[in-house]
Amino acid sequence: MTSPASPYLGPDEISRTVRRLAHEIVENNRGTDGLVLVGLLSRGYTLARRLAEAIREFENVAVPVGALDIGLYRDDVTRRPAPPPVRPSEIPVPIDDNTIVLVDDVLFTGRSIRAALDALLDYGRPARVRLAVLIDRGHRELPIRPDFVGKNIPTALIQKVQVRLHEVDGLDGVFVFGEEASHA
Amino acid sequence: MLELRNPDAPAVPGEATAWKRKDLLDTDTLSEAELHLIMETAEAMREVRARPVGKVATLRGFTVITLFYEQSTRTRASFEVAAKALGADVVNLTASGSSVEKGETLIDTVRTLEAIGADLVVMRHPKSGAPYLAARNTAAGIINGGDGTHAHPTQALLDLFTMRRHVGDLAGKKVTIVGDILHSRVARSNLWTLLASGADVTLCGPATLLPKTLAASTGEGARCTVTTRMEDAIEGADIVMALRMQKERQDRGLIPSLRQYIASYQVNSRRLALAKPGALVMHPGPMNEGIEIAPEVAHGLDSVIEEQVANGVAVRMAILYLMATGRHA
User: Fold this and answer.
1) Do B143 and B215 sit in the same domain of this protein?
2) A35 and A63 Cβ atoms separated by less than 8 Å
């Protein structure tokens, strides 16, 4: 599959969106006390690190960042052509009684977040869990909703949304494949 | 901080990383990409084991049967713990007390286990090659838990995992294996994974316990040395692995006496001083302390023998996970 000529969101827009999300998260938590960002590997974790960096810039506080792998918690393990790759999770602080913000790049069916909640709760009992996503493209199959959304992109089911981040992919951009997406 | 890479990109360039094997019978045909996949998956399993509740439900609904025709402590227990930590159901069978005693053949036994609902059968057998026969005659995945003097792939993989955790990349590292190489399935399976990882392997023991053709069979350019001279073997080694010396070898006249063996080949602190400082000391167990390995070395600072056992659970979880959920033609 080739990239569309221009990304739906470019590097500057992603950077502005991440900074806005960082402000919203801190505002919602009334500061950074007890706040832990946990990103889904790999791009959710990358975004969580960027959010933490943004928070450090305006609050001068280093919020802990964890990485969560959901491979062992997926509901489609036996339906996939190959075993989902699994990597170590890294939760650097106890999550008990803290506010965990799960971070992912694209929210779609909600199944990844269901798996992430199961994975997270194996580490303890957080006071509350919030969900931050860069892109919400709709088409939920489970009763899951995000608390912080970078951008809503209305999509058709046949379309593909891909977030690329330079730490992982070598470039920043949000791409919509398939039928031409309607720019909101 | 975790290393970031594109999860869709293959870890070893040019090779797909998906697991496609029905069986794990030896390490000799495992590709570099497959070894990498097992090691990376085992890292994730190690993290699972380190949690307050070291258990997940990924293999819920899968049945793992261990079928042991030979005694075992660590391999059987380790597979059972690994399967349970992934949420699978486990049934343990031994030859004594089963229909094997009534004369049931191996083929009939594995077909029966498949009919009962086994997805994976972990098998140990005194005859070299028995798991291959079983694998050809059942749709269940067969994992070789040790066959005769032939292969013990999961031991080699947990050894590789342990080495890489301490030494990192094994390319150019000197790994010395000392003991009864001829009868050791551990040595043989280790040889393949170590050579695939780029290590220089030295196999050392009395001439009667060294295979004459092994070095030649490892192929062009493979860095495998076979020697009877313990001091040469251990000099400059990064990793020293002692093998169990079975007492019956003396009865068969392969070694003059255990005392003679100890004098020439025991891994002790005096000999270990010839290796690199901080060289890793390993043993697949069960140990005969005071025979192939001196107690002060077995329990010394550089010994990772107990860690090998702990890592065995993580590595076996990785293998069970990949084999249960992989697709094979």
Assistant:
1) no
2) yes
CB contact under 8 A, A82 and B327: yes
Residue of A nearest to B11 (CA): A85
Contact state of B2 with A41 under an 8 Å Cβ cutoff = yes
SS3 A104: strand
Q: Residue B166: what residue type?
A: H
Q: Specify whether the CB–CB gap between B40 and B12 falls below 8 A.
A: no
Is B44's CB within 8 Å of A87's CB? Answer: yes
Phi then psi dihedrals of residue B282, to 5 deg: -130, 160
Residues of B in contact with A77 (CB under 8 A): 58, 325
B146: in domain = yes
Note down the domain range covering B73.
Answer: 32-152+310-325
Residue count (chain A): 184
Q: From CA B281, how far away is CA B240, in angstroms rounded?
A: 5
- Helix (H) / strand (E) element for B174: namely strand B174-178
User: Mutate which of A46, A86, A105 to disrupt the B interface (most B C-beta within 10 Å)?
Assistant: A86
Task: Report how far apart the first and last C-alpha atoms of chain A are (Å, whole number).
Answer: 24
Tell me whether residue B20 is in a domain: no
The rounded mean pLDDT for chain B is 91
C-alpha closest to that of B149 among B123, B176, B177, B182: B182
Please check whether residue B10 lies inside any domain of the structure: no
Q: How confident is the model at residue A1 (pLDDT cuts 50, 70, 90)?
A: very low
- Is the bond preceding residue B286 a cis peptide, omega within 30 degrees? yes
Q: Which domain holds residue A37?
A: 11-177
Rounded CA separation B83/B88 (Å): 5
pTM: 0.91
Based on the fold, state whether residues B314 and B272 are members of the same structural domain.
no
- B20 and A167: CB-CB below 8 Å? no
In sequence order, the 6+-apart residues with CB closer than 8 A to the CB of B106 are B125, B130, B133, B134
Between A169-178, B14-23, B110-119, B152-161, the lowest mean confidence (pLDDT) is in B14-23
Residue A182 domain flag: no
B282 and B213 share a domain?
A: yes
Say how far apart CA A8 and CA A173 lie, in whole Å. Answer: 7
Taking the C-alpha atoms of residue B74 and residue B85, their distance in angstroms, rounded to an integer, is 16
